[in-house]
Amino acid sequence: MHVSPNSSEPKSLTLTQPDDWHLHLRDGAYLQSVLIHSASRFARAIIMPNLKPPLVNTKQVLYYRQQILAALPAGLPFEPLMVLYLTDIITVQEIITAATTGLIYGVKLYPAGATTNSAFGVSNLNSIYHVLAKLEHLGMPLLVHAETASSTADIFDREAIFINEYLLPITQRFPGLKIVVEHITTQEAVQFILDTPANIAATITVHHLLYNRNAMLAGGIRPHFYCLPILKREQHRHALVQAAISGNPKFFLGTDSAPHAVVAKESSCGCAGCFSAPVAIESYTEVFEKAGALDKLEGFAAHYGPDFYGLPRNQQRITLVKQPWQVPMSYAFGDQKVIPLRAGETITWQIIDSI
Ligand code: DOR
Ligand code: ZN
Questions:
Q1: Deepest in the core among 42, 50, 102, 187, taking most CB within 10 A?
Q2: CA 271 and chain centroid, separation
């Protein structure tokens, strides 16, 4: 990573092009609208399979991959790293078929009912233990939405409960299983990652690094900050920042950029998800700069993810310069609009180049 000039106030930053290890691209006209924001910043992304209907078999996943590639502007290199959606009835054969394609890089465990389009997720973890054994055997990562879907569990405790009651036993029963605990939001999750071996890692979103729950709830209810897992207290945000800037390769970048139309967010029952793709790498850079840890950004954003997934690091580089720009109030989203994270705010870092 190159920081220039050599002063305490860097004006530009060149680093290995980052990847996004957790991304929602949607499909159809929505995909067409949002893909460019990720593809112009990130070289690769792990693509979430929670479409309507979810991608529960290899054929569906590969069809979606073709749709993503077809939606890419000509000449823009971007590699979608596909993911299969786990259900209670998924077969071991389906896992083998997915792995054999060489195009599917993980399987996603949504506890049924935990979040957007998770109704077909796993309702009984015991029912997929034979599948987890196969994943462990194949070295294929299990990507986990680590929240209990129990309606009696307090929403702010759902991550910690899931980790203790479900994830810990899985790691004990399948010690070689590669697991990514997606979008961690609590001190407890950070500690869990620190306490477990190198085959267990976590992604961290930029919204969970930037905001605590006051952003969503104090002085009025702001639906564009509503995501799952939900924003937590300041002490948790602080723990996430410390983890991200620690240089520990078990923590890496995953935006969980999850666009919803304005009407679906600004509703009496609004959808969960922050659309962060247009501001993500720029905002991570601000977070790392504020924490005095710009030298740790490249590892977090561009090295530890591919290292964990056993993929090569990107050869291309990007350059960010300190050149303030204003985030648009909205972007097109099919025939609707989507409001990005930090809409209308000024961001100090801007991407000027990728080579
Ligand atoms: O905030 C979220 N939005 N969390 C999720 O787990 C799903 C995502 C979505 O698909 O909208
Ligand atoms: Zn997600």
A1: 42
A2: 17
- Rounded CA separation 184/287 (Å): 16
Q: Which residues pair with 347 in a beta bridge?
A: 325
Question: Which of 48, 120, 211, 256 has most ligand 1 atoms within 8 Å of CB, for mutation?
Answer: 256
Ligand 1 pocket: which residues have CB below 6 Å? 24, 50, 115-116, 145, 227-228, 258, 272-273
DSSP track, 10-25: -SEEEEEPP-EEEE--
Average pLDDT score over residue span 38-46: 98
Q: Is-contact 308 252, C-beta < 8 A?
A: yes
pLDDT band at 118 (very low <50, low <70, confident <90, very high): confident
CB atoms within 10 A of CB 181: 26
Domains of the chain by range and CATH? 17-276 (3.20.20.140)
Confidence of residue 23 (pLDDT cuts 50, 70, 90): very high
pLDDT of residue 53: 95
Rg (CA), the chain: 19
Is the pTM above the cut of 0.85? yes
- Identify which ligand lies nearest to the alpha carbon of 21: 2
Q: Are 351 and 282 in contact (CB under 8 A)?
A: yes
Distance from Cα 35 to the centre of ligand 1, integer Å: 17
Does 5 sit behind a cis peptide bond, omega within 30 degrees of 0 on the bond before it?
Answer: yes
Phi, psi of 14 (to 5 degrees): -115, 125
Give the three-state DSSP class for 317.
strand
Scanning 40-101, the segments in alpha helix (DSSP H) are 58-71, 92-101
Are 64 and 84 in contact, with CB atoms under 8 Å apart?
no
Please, are residues 144 and 181 in contact by the beta-carbon 8 Å criterion? yes
How many angstroms does the Cα of residue 325 sit away from the middle of ligand 2? 27
Please name which of 26, 31, 36 lies closest in space to residue 278, comparing C-alpha atoms: 36
Q: Exactly one of 256, 295, 335, 353 is catalytic; which is it?
A: 256
Residue 115: closest CA among 168, 45, 50: 50
- Cβ-Cβ contacts under 8 Å for 126 (sequence gap 6 or more): none
HSE of 167, CA atoms in CB hemisphere, 13 A: 32
